[in-house]
């Protein structure tokens, strides 16, 4: 409901919104009906019945299961109808006078095999043919998400795109009248955010390894650092994506500095609030800051949903080149000459700071 309200508030028409979660609350279905959102997803009889009762004018997209056994996040364990059940669901929709207008799937996040997309597109073609036989006019194909958003991913985005385009050429060629959708959130935002968190507590913990003390002459230990954020907040990507965040240190350690076995924990008393273990770090102290790159997906947004409010401060920064390009789009032409003498904000010290006539300018999130 909050997401539908948000996108409509910024001017997105209801006809452009698809309520794609296949597990919906009745209150949210009624909200969609009241505000003109007609495209909804389903993957079982119960979900179809809920929509028929609360939003009879809805047009449905059938969510099908995929082969995602190698994905880091396997959504088909919980969502998606099997190919065997699709005809039955399409028949039920026809019986209830609900039009099914498309097919969606999601192969999960971190899938190492691009061919999984090709197989899912082929499966979608079969469901389209089932729908046509039963009188459904299907014209939407939703490819899901999970696309990599960082350089150095096991499978590059370009490889995935090549496989998808080849499969679309085969099963949904240009001119066939099918609109192709995809969820590109992770691709767009993963690398857009860098997280800075401080150490709020530190303690040494003895490792329970009988016999090691006699071998080494001292009891093995690890240093546990508690950070101001944990897996119940911004680091919930550890739970969602099985990630192991690696920090960038505020100060680069010297070559002769001893490294210690370390773990990072969140602020919660729960033993499950573990961010990372087995890291070899120099001695750090309370108040030191750690930086984590590529923290845009399943971090701030999910933390806000889980706790009901955004707890972190978001600061926007851009390079001189980006600022000048943006300025050219926003300022009227007649102001260009005056703008030449203005100080330009730079990004986080990445450019030479002695060229500044003032400190870097950051824009509060509320203004953006």
UniProtKB/TrEMBL annotation:
Belongs to the Orn/Lys/Arg decarboxylase class-II family. ODC antizyme inhibitor subfamily. It is found in: Cell projection, Axon; Cell projection, Dendrite; Cytoplasm, Perinuclear region; Cytoplasmic granule. Its main location: other. PANTHER family: ANTIZYME INHIBITOR 2, ARGININE/DIAMINOPIMELATE/ORNITHINE DECARBOXYLASE. Pfam families: Orn_Arg_deC_N. This is Antizyme inhibitor 2. Monomer. Interacts with OAZ1, OAZ2 and OAZ3; this interaction disrupts the interaction between the antizyme and ODC1. Does not form a heterodimer with ODC1. Keywords: Cell projection, Cytoplasm, Cytoplasmic vesicle, Golgi apparatus, Lyase, Membrane, Nucleus, Pyridoxal phosphate, Transport, Ubl conjugation. CDD domains: PLPDE_III_ODC. One of its GO terms (cellular component) is cytoplasmic vesicle. One of its GO terms (molecular function) is lyase activity. One of its GO terms (biological process) is positive regulation of polyamine transmembrane transport. It comes from the Eukaryota. Residues 2-189 form the Orn/DAP/Arg decarboxylase 2 N-terminal domain. The gene is AZIN2. Catalyzes the first and rate-limiting step of polyamine biosynthesis that converts ornithine into putrescine, which is the precursor for the polyamines, spermidine and spermine. Polyamines are essential for cell proliferation and are implicated in cellular processes, ranging from DNA replication to apoptosis. Its cofactor is pyridoxal 5'-phosphate. InterPro entries: Ala_racemase/Decarboxylase_C, De-COase2_CS, De-COase2_N, Orn/DAP/Arg_de-COase, Orn_de-COase, PLP-binding_barrel. The lineage of its organism: Eukaryota, Metazoa, Chordata, Craniata, Vertebrata.
């Amino acid at each position: 409901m909050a997401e539908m309200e948000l996108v409509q508030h910024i001017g997105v028409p209801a006809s452009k919104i698809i309520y794609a979660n296949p597990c919906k609350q009745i209150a949210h279905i009624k909200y969609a009906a009241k505000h003109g959102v007609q495209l909804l997803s389903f993957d079982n009889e119960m979900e179809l019945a809920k929509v028929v009762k609360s939003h009879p004018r809805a047009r449905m997209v059938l969510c099908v299961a995929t082969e995602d056994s190698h994905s880091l996040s396997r959504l088909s364990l919980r969502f998606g109808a099997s190919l065997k059940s699709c005809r039955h669901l399409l028949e039920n929709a026809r019986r209830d006078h609900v039009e099914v207008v498309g097919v969606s799937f999601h192969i999960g996040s971190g899938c190492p095999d691009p061919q999984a997309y090709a197989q899912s597109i082929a499966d979608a073609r079969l469901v389209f043919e089932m729908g046509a036989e039963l009188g459904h006019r299907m014209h939407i194909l939703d490819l899901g998400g999970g696309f990599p958003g960082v350089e150095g991913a096991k499978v590059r985005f370009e490889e995935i795109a090549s496989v998808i385009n080849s499969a679309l050429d085969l099963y949904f060629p240009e001119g066939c009248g099918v609109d192709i959708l995809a969820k590109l959130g992770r691709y767009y935002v993963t690398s857009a955010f860098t997280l800075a968190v401080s150490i709020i507590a530190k303690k040494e913990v003895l490792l329970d390894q009988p016999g090691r003390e006699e071998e080494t002459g001292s009891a093995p230990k690890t240093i546990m650092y508690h950070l101001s954020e944990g897996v119940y907040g911004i680091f919930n990507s550890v739970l969602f994506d099985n990630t192991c965040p690696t920090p960038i240190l505020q100060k680069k350690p010297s070559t002769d500095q001893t490294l210690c076995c370390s773990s990072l924990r969140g602020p919660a008393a729960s033993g499950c609030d573990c961010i990372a273990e087995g890291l070899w770090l120099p001695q750090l102290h309370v108040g030191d800051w750690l930086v984590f790159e590529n923290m845009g997906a399943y971090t701030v947004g999910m933390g806000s949903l889980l706790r009901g409010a955004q707890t972190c401060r978001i600061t926007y920064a851009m390079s001189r080149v980006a600022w000048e390009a943006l300025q050219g789009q926003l300022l009227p032409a007649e102001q260009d000459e005056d703008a030449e003498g203005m100080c330009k904000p730079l990004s986080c010290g990445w450019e030479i700071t002695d060229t500044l006539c003032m400190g870097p300018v950051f824009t509060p999130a509320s203004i953006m």
